[in-house]
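Weekly puzzle thread! Below is a chain. First person to post its structure in token form gets bragging rights.
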Amino acid sequence: MTASTVLHKSIALALLASSFGAVAQTAPAPQPAAVSANAPAATPAVLLAPPMTPATPVVDNYFGTQVIDPYRWMENMKADAFQTWARAQSDYAAAVLARIPGRDALKARLAELNNAAENISGIETVGGRLFYLKSEPGRNVRRLFMRDAQGNERVLLDPSAIDASGAHQSIDFYTPSPDGTLMAVGLSHGGSEDSVLRILDIATGSFLAESIDGAGLNHEGIGWRPDSRAFFYNRLPPADKNGVRERYNKSAVYEHVVGQDVSKDRAVFGYGVTVKRHFAVPDLPVVLTSPDSQYAVAVVLHGDAVDRSVYVAPLSAINGPDTPWRRIAGPQDQVNWVHLRGNELYLLSHKNAPRYQLLSMDIKADLSKAKVVVAKSDAVLKKAAVAKDAIYLRTLDGGVSRLVRVPFDTKQPQPVALPFDGTVLEIVADGSTPGAMVKLEGWTESPRIYRVSPEGQVSDTGMLKPSPVSFADIEAKRVMVRSHDGTLVPLSILHKKGLKLDGSNPAIVNGYGAYGITQEARFVPSRLAWLERGGVLAVAHVRGGGEFGEEWHKGAHILNKANTIRDFIACTEYLVSAGYTSSKKLAGTGGSAGGITVGGAITQRPELFAAAQSAVGVSDMLRMEFTPNGPPNIAEFGTVRKKAHFEAMYAISPYHRVKDGGKYPAVILTTGMNDPRVDAWMPAKFAARLQTATTSGKPVLLRIDYKAGHGMGSTVGQRVAETADVWSFFLWQMGDPAFQPAK
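Winning reply:
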């Protein structure tokens, strides 16, 4: 799900009933009789079938439609019944996977490829110094580095050295102070994203005394005051009388003065701060600043909706709940990005411009006075960064990133020629320094970091050397596939050069399609482990994403979400008809919201696939909104409280589309028990339903990582292990001789 995805604790069924007349027949959670919580994992020779799953049906009535949920009891993940059942399923999956003979060799190859080169991400710049996360060969977690103007580099923070117990921690976010002396850092355990905000002294590398919990929603950034003595941060409300704390909802922005006791921090904006201003439960507020401005900008993310609200206030007037915020834009203005420069605002809006346009306005004026800086065109405006001399803007043109420089003096867009066609993954700029930096990579081009001069000249910084993992023998192409309604859907395909299109190649097709997120070209060294075996990898750029702007996103949104699945099926059919693979050699994958995509495909067209993976996947669309992450996702998927929304969701919800007696492909469902975005019970229910219903004789596995969450914060070792398990499972089901367990 998106970085702004926010979740909410389960809403009582009684509330659901009072909202639209649902009737629930509840029953206590069953106890799996044949499984002991303390029993050791069975050996592969014994585990010939998955553990039995008791069914205790709950019947809901949605606008006259009765829906049976046999595994509602799993939604209480703290119950002994669920924990015992989940452990048994995890042991079963581990035992089955352990029998696949080629898995260890594949895992070793994946580890070799993943550890072949360094990578850098999350670059921030202040006063000529760079801050970034670096992945390094042989290290399991990323470390935070600083690089000075002379190119000297040092480690600022090693999360693996924080916890003596050996439990891995992750750096979730970080924002340096304007003077470069302090760093606000978010840390969490085990992929939970339950961040604790700490303040790092950059000179000494040590933490200050402050420790702020409930800070997991600061991925949009920390707003430092220009004097670097205080900052604005998002914080969740304290635990209730039962000790339950919100994970994603009802948050507010507080101001913290460095060195002051956290208990003295005052809320300045957000949920419950003032009765004069209304905030909905899933609204996520942030306050952003700029070193050259005496104003603050407050932005409200309305759950997972694309459009945001924007407020401004003088920094000198910020006074707790009495701060005089003035609204600049609301959701109706269709703004999804804003940047402050002095007394000027720059905004990206798709109002009357489906592929977006860039606007500028005086901070004291109304949005109606805004001027168009970069007009709408066929290119999609994606992201921007503000330097001293210009705005550097990333656009998307037919799947390829372009860079545009917009000088402040002329405001005339100037294209910047890049070294190769690929994806501008990051644009980095500092309002006090001219020029910018970009990180550029492609399907077959390893990432490089380039400096862009005010004259538009591009030069390699040397911060990243070309990867020793060569894709010279790999071909990447993009074709347009006609979907069910005639819409042309992009499909990216990677394979070895000279591949024979005779249907014999093992292939994996991935799909997502939500939140307007674009699946762009990325260099992933571990892919070579599949491609060098003669395999095909494909990415279906289905509707619901942002490949062609907001129209593409809205093309598979709530009432027409089914287009995401239909587009994916069309792309899958193309791979077979064009000879890239066959149904006996094809696997589908989708993660998070992509669980709807792949889950919908295998329940609608099971014969198309030999195998599939749903990774931390959304699979029960009717119950999603009653999870901690549910309220924000209503903006993307809809609500069962509205009849039309319910009907659209019910028609494609993977869990509800499983039919008894169906011949489903082999499926591996992967999840993390600490997942805060898609609760682990969701893939668990889907796994149980498939195991019970399928008559194909093919395995359905539930792979659980008890030290992981949604994938953010997972270690290199965890990612390698999961990929090895999933690809080995695929190759087994595709009939690869090297991956066939002994009979």
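Puzzle host: Confirmed. Bonus trivia for everyone else. The chain has twelve helices and 38 strands.
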